[in-house]
Amino acid sequence: MKKNMIVGQSGGPTAVINSSLYGVITEGLKSTSHIDKIYGMINGIEGFLHDTVADIRKEEHLHQLDLIRTTPGAYLGSCRYKLPEDLTDPVYQTLFQKFSALDIGYFFYIGGNDSMDTVSKLSKYAASVNSTIRFIGIPKTIDNDLMETDHTPGYGSAAKYVATTVREIATDANVYDNLKSVTIVEIMGRHAGWLTASSILARKFKGDNPVLIYLPESDFSTEDFVAKVEASLASTPNLVVCISEGIHDKNKTFICEYTQSAGVDSFGHKMLAGAGKYLENLIRERLHVKVRSIELNVCQRCSCSHLSRVDLDEAENAGIFALHCALQGQTGKMITFCRNRSIPYELSYGTVDVNLVCNREKSVPSEWITQDGSDISDSFIDYVRPLTQGYVELPTKNGIPLFAYRK
Amino acid sequence: MKKNMIVGQSGGPTAVINSSLYGVITEGLKSTSHIDKIYGMINGIEGFLHDTVADIRKEEHLHQLDLIRTTPGAYLGSCRYKLPEDLTDPVYQTLFQKFSALDIGYFFYIGGNDSMDTVSKLSKYAASVNSTIRFIGIPKTIDNDLMETDHTPGYGSAAKYVATTVREIATDANVYDNLKSVTIVEIMGRHAGWLTASSILARKFKGDNPVLIYLPESDFSTEDFVAKVEASLASTPNLVVCISEGIHDKNKTFICEYTQSAGVDSFGHKMLAGAGKYLENLIRERLHVKVRSIELNVCQRCSCSHLSRVDLDEAENAGIFALHCALQGQTGKMITFCRNRSIPYELSYGTVDVNLVCNREKSVPSEWITQDGSDISDSFIDYVRPLTQGYVELPTKNGIPLFAYRK
């Protein structure tokens, strides 16, 4: 008996989250014997609660399908909405009434660990009311911090963006190589340093910039930092240092929190600066060298300028695989990536109980961080490099990438 | 009679300044009947004064020549050094003694208006001592603010970077389109708004983001700004605004200067924030909406990620043309771009007395800025678009762009 499917996106965007959307939709369109209508939640489960649902088979969406595949951000829009812990909360009854009204048989949610919490709760409630709706989570996050999977869609392209950008910044830093200078690059990652670690790919040779790399997985000592920077300047006059936004000291106080004493602006707001800005001032104060800090902006999560072909294809395949798993009757599962080998790179797709993923975070293993916490070990390169490979030619108009968008 | 040539780079880097270096060197290598040795000044005229000169015909440089063409930054290194106004200053005698010692017949300097000042002074001194050395300036700057030329090498690629990045940022801003938000993007350009103006290319349709664009060519009113933002939010809930770093009020006070009252950080340093940060706080204070500011980092001047084929080729041709002009006996000149037409785009190369260029700045004409100073007129698009066209395939290794560098 035919049923309808619905798909939503949740959490922060990535460069390839729409490729997963493309995968699950195109495969849904093919599955004519099981799937009738294809709905999209506008702004995730939160939007769905307000009945903002799109019929994806409408021409306005279908004619953009190919474009959606390489458009960064979230085509359906996103949300940060946590369902109540108490499954007797009326919101669940409301949601399932809406599911029935739309004759939903298959529910797909593309997101990170918070989004998997939504999949977990909905599948648990479904079991408690003997609903036959299948709930499948499709992973995405530039943070690469999901448990039970080798890596996450979105990480490879973000890592490639960071590596390329840091190499460009290092080139810029070398322009006045007759002066000593320090450039501190702050990279996204509050609790996991996967993205910051990828900056090691920017090194052109051993000892090249970024000479120092700090992750939130190690306690950060400002004194060790100043000493390391001073020592590194001797061999690298234009030093580039990469740090995660979430670096913290041994008391688990975020370094950026120390900037909150920085005073208020003319409106009386606290001037909140990042860890990079704090360390910039620290180095200037202590070493009296030219120093600047650069906070990589949202493009590290939303740029399609350095798409990894491997990442884009895996994201699409995750969507395709999710649809097959749902049709096979699986529910309460998240799609996982299992790496068979790194060289040559070989991947297979699987599923895992979503409860093993939601509300947990995967850190960078200590064996990939050097003893003193100021660098990444080369063995990490074998892990990350395959995920950043391959070029994707983007559709462009007048030289600027062409993006899909909801009219 | 054969002579030697020397080339240097000066001022801030661009994505294609090395393409001009590639052009003048490769053409010099071909001119075997007139040119013998090819020298490179390391860190411009300042480095030359300290005898940091490279023999470009050495294998370590020659084998990287093709790579140099697409490497951003300044392969020879740069400087910000102003020669004394007084031509009787002993530094000129010193310089020309060094020129003679190296048997220099041709001097090429790749840079902006400060660098053209160096070309001007050296050529004037040469005339005063009857030196036969020919001094030619090769323009470069992402600011596009040089007089007497339609545009400058480096601007097209920077404009393409800004347009693409702003479109990506706008896509990211739309992810939570159930909430109102303002994103302020601060773009380089202290006195001229050419680069900020190029953000108009990010618009996918009329009325699309960036809805508001502010250049330093117009006086900025914070009251008008708040009103414009509030009005624009009605039709564009996720508003993106682009501003030049150099926007100023009618008293010519830079908006960023108002942040200097922002207080001191924990080291007692003034917290200097940009105009974007100031306006972010202003909008939060006055309109109580979600607001963030993004300062585009140095990549807008050093990224090769959005190279314009037109820009790269024109930069190389400027180097080639410069060598021919020198061989023809021209001196004290800068290479100029003369646009014959925009559609189809057609360019010819010329020269101009460097004294008409140095220490002057070209602003965006008022007819390309809307009456209220909050937007760019569509006619500007016909000017800028041809400069951003064409794709350049970069040499890569393991998926990351390969850059040339001095060993």
TrEMBL record, chains A, B:
Pathway assignment: Carbohydrate degradation; glycolysis; D-glyceraldehyde 3-phosphate and glycerone phosphate from D-glucose: step 3/4
Swiss-Prot/TrEMBL keywords: Cytoplasm, Glycolysis, Kinase, Magnesium, Metal-binding, Transferase
Binding site for Mg(2+): 113
Signal peptide region: none
UniProt-annotated location(s): Cytoplasm
GO cellular component: cytoplasm
Residues at which substrate binds: 141-143, 188-190, 245
Regulation: Non-allosteric.
Reaction(s) this enzyme catalyzes, per UniProt: beta-D-fructose 6-phosphate + diphosphate = beta-D-fructose 1,6-bisphosphate + phosphate + H(+)
Active site: residue positions: 143
UniProt site (Important for catalytic activity): 140
EC number: 2.7.1.90
Principal location listed in the UniProt entry: cytoplasm
Cofactor(s) essential for the protein: Mg(2+)
Pfam families given in the database record: PFK
PANTHER family: ATP-DEPENDENT 6-PHOSPHOFRUCTOKINASE 1
Official protein name in the record: Pyrophosphate--fructose 6-phosphate 1-phosphotransferase
Gene source species: Suipraeoptans intestinalis
